[in-house]
Fold this protein.
Amino acid sequence: LCDTSILDRMTGALCDAVTGQSGGTEALRSLERANVFIVPLDDSREWYRYHHLFADVLRSRLLAHGPERTAALHVRASEWYQAHGFGEDAVQHALEAGDYPRAARLIEASVPAVRKSRQDGPLLRSLARLPEDTIRRMPVLSVFFGWSLIVAGEIDEVEPWLQNAERLLAGAGAGGDGTPAHDSADGVELRTLPVTIELYRASLAQARGDVAAVTTHAQRALDAAASDDYLGQGGASGMLGLAAAARGDLEEGVRAFAAAGSSLHRAGNLADALSTTLVVADMLVPLGRLREVQRRYEEALTLARVEVGGEPPTSDLHSGLALVLRELDDRDGAREHLDASEALGERVFSNEHRFRWFIAAAGVSRSEGRLDEALDLLATAEQFYRAGFFPDVTPIAAQKARIWLAQGRLAEARAWAEARALRVADELTYLHEYEHLTLARLLIAEGDAQEALGLLGRVLDAAEAGHRTGSAIEARMLHALANEALGETALALDPLALALAASEPEGYVRLFVDEGEPMRRLLRAAAAASIHTAYSSRLSRAFGETPPAETTGPVGLVSDRELQVLRLLASELSGPDIARELYVSLNTLRTHTKHIFDKLEVNNRAAAVRRAKSIGLI
C-alpha cells in the first residue's frame, strides 16, 4: 500500500512493476470489495485510485523509509509508463524521482509528437521543472527551451539557448559519461535542428519588427531544409509569407502560406496546417475578401472533422470563423462558434492563438452593445497575446481605443495615440495601417476632421497601391464620416457610395454599424439619394431601424442565419447533415427551425420550403 501510494492512478500491472510483486490486479479488486479507501476510475475496473486522504496517510508513512526508496519507486513507475506508451506520466514520475537526465531524455523523445499535435502544455510545464544545467547538455531541449521563452514573451532570453544548441551540435558539449550529450535525441530532430534554430531566429526578428531579418533567417531555413523535411519547408515558407505581408504584399503572403500549409500537411502536421488558415484569414480581411475567409474556415473545419475525427484541434478555427460571422452581423452564428471553441477546452487551443477567442468574444459583445464587457475581454486577450509569432497588424490596444471612441472616452483614446507616437505626418506602412485608421477616427471625434481627411487620403492611396480593398473600404467610409462631420453631407455621399459598392458583394455590416449615429445619418441620406438602396436598407436593419416600405423584402423576415438554414432545408440533406454543414449542434438547428416555422406560419419542413419559395426568400 505504501509503495503504490506514489501513483495517482493504478492498474494491476503497474502496481506489480512498482512493488516488485505479483497479483496486483486481484489485490486491487479485493480492496474494492472490502471497500478499503479505493475508487474505480472506469467501468471495466481496470484503473483505480486511492481515496485522497488515505493516499496522504500512506505517503506520510512512506516518507519514514527515506527519500531513496520513494525515488526508486518513481523510477519503476516511470519505466512502466514509458514501456506502455504513457509518455507524459513517465516524465512526471522521473521528475518526482529527481532523475533529471531520464526526465530530459523522455521529454526530448516527446518533441516530435508534440510538434505534430501542438499539445505543448505538458512539454512546457515539464521543461520548466528541469534544472537548466540538464537542459544545456541537450541540443534539442536547448532549442525547445528557447521556444518556451518565446511562448512566454521573454524574447531577449532566447538567443543564448539557440547558440548553446549550435555549440553542442558542433561537438563542443558532452555528457557526464564522456559521450556526446545528444546521443539520445531523435535522429530526425537532430538532423533538422539547424532549420528549427533559423525558424526561431526568424520568429525573434518577427517579434522585434525586423522584416529584413525575418526574410534572411527564413530563407536560410528553407535553404537548409532537406527535400523530405516538409515541416521545415512549411515553417520557412510561412515565415517568408509573414515577411511579405509585413511589407504590405498580402497577395504574396497568401500564396506563401498556401505553400506552407501544403508542406505541413505532407509532413503529417495537420494541426499546423490547419493553423495556417488563421494567418491567411488575417491577410484576406484587409484584402477585402470576407466570403473567402468564411469559406476557408469552413473548409478547414471540414478537413479537421474528416481527417482527425473525435475532438480535432479546431478551437482557434471556430474563434476565427466567429469573428468573420460577427462582421457579417450573424451574431447567432458567431455565438455558436464561440461556444463550440470554448466547449473543446483549453487543451486544444494553441499557445500563440489563444488570445483570438477573447478578441472574437469582444467583437460579439460590442455588436450587442456591451462595450465595457468588450473592453474586459480585450484586456484578457492582452494577457494571452505573445509577440514573436505573427505581425501585430491589429494591435489590441488600438481595438480598445476604438471602443473608447464609441463610448466618447476621447481622453483615453488620445492617451493611446500619444503612447504610440502616432502622427498625421507619419510614414505609412501596412503594419501600422490599422492604427492610422484608428487615429483618423480619433481626429474626427476631436473635431479635426479636415486633418483626418489628409491622413485618410494617404492611407487610401497606400491601400489601393497594395490592392488592399478592405482597407480602402474603411478609408473611404471614414472619408465620408469626416465630410459629414464638416457638414458636407453631399460630399460625403461620393466616398460612401464607393465604399458601399465595394463592400456589398462581401456582406460587410459591422464595419459601418459600429460607427454609430453619424453613419446612421449618412445611410439615411444615401437611401434618400437612391444609393445602393437594398444594401443601405440591410445596414439600416442592423441599426435596428425599419427601412422604407419600398425597400423592404421577404429576406428581412428572417435572420441571415435562418436564411442559411432555410436554403439547406430546401436541399436533400437530413437534419444531422444540415447541423454538420453549419457546424452547430442538432438542438441549435432545431431552435433555428422552430423560429423559421413560427415566422413563416407553418409547422413542417416541406411547408416552410414552399412558403419561402412563394414569397421569394429562396
